[in-house]
């Protein structure tokens, strides 16, 4: 963990597993497919997939498990399951409080997520009042300007350019992430990053972030020269 934090003016949030509790739905969908082939979805596989686009995550799983199924077939199979489950997505602890606080103080906010636009709409269907607070929204798989996914830094660097002018320098941006791939992407982009990891993540994977916290409820904005909670 870094001993000194630098002032920031803008923030970028990941979505799945950070703002919305959707990771359990992903795990259930993956396990349903793997069980047909006598296999089980593991934490190690989840760790490799976290932070990546759906297509890349499926490619990794097919290769690792040597599955006789294509990415397109997996997409089709999981689509109906997700259409039923995603609208039930709930906000993670502390998410609404933090977003409303930053919005109230007019801190520019961006959403940079590896989910497709279609799934974004399903997941946020019942939380429009929260997600309309973002100044910038980027669904990486559908973004024509972004050619690579996390852990590459491109998505964050492009995202920063879309903030209302004057756009900030990377070092003026604080990123919130739950995945190691997301953390590495933010660091490579020259940004500080707050990590809210899955409780199963080991200490080594937690150690790269600027600061690692159990929950968004534990975040102290004033550490980064943002307005403190009342």
UniProtKB/TrEMBL annotation:
Keyword Cell cycle found: no
Class in the EC hierarchy, top level: hydrolase
Catalysed reaction, written as an equation: psi-UMP + H2O = pseudouridine + phosphate
Cofactors that this protein relies on: Mg(2+)
InterPro entries: HAD-like_sf (IPR036412), HAD-SF_hydro_IA (IPR006439), HAD_2 (IPR041492), HAD_sf (IPR023214), PGP-like_dom2 (IPR023198)
Enzyme Commission code: 3.1.3.96
MF term (GO), any: pseudouridine 5'-phosphatase activity
Top-level taxonomic group: Eukaryota
Keyword Coiled coil: no
UniProt keyword terms in alphabetical order: Hydrolase, Magnesium, Metal-binding
SUPFAM superfamilies registered for this protein in UniProt: HAD-like
Similarity annotation: Belongs to the HAD-like hydrolase superfamily. CbbY/CbbZ/Gph/YieH family.
Protein's recorded name: pseudouridine 5'-phosphatase
Taxon lineage: Eukaryota, Metazoa, Ecdysozoa, Nematoda, Enoplea
């Amino acid at each position: 963990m870094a001993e000194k934090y630098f002032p920031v003016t803008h923030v970028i949030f990941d979505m799945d597993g950070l703002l919305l509790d959707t990771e359990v739905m992903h795990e259930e969908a993956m396990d349903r497919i793997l069980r047909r082939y006598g296999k089980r979805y593991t934490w190690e596989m989840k760790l490799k997939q976290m932070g990546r686009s759906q297509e890349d995550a499926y490619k990794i799983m097919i290769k690792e498990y040597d599955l006789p199924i294509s990415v397109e077939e997996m997409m089709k199979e999981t689509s109906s399951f997700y259409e039923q489950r995603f609208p039930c997505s709930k906000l993670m602890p502390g998410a609404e409080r933090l977003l409303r606080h930053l919005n109230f103080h007019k801190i520019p906010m961006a959403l940079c997520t590896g989910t497709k636009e279609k799934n974004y709409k399903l997941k946020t269907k019942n939380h429009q009042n929260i997600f309309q607070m973002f100044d910038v929204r980027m669904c990486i798989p559908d973004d024509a300007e972004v050619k690579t996914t996390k852990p590459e830094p491109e998505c964050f660097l492009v995202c920063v350019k879309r903030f209302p002018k004057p756009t900030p320098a990377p070092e003026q941006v604080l990123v919130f992430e739950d995945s190691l791939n997301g953390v590495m992407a933010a660091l490579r982009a020259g940004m500080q990053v707050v990590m809210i990891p899955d409780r199963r993540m080991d200490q080594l994977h937690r150690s790269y972030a600027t600061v690692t916290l159990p929950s968004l409820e534990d975040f102290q904005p004033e550490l980064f020269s943002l307005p403190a909670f009342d």
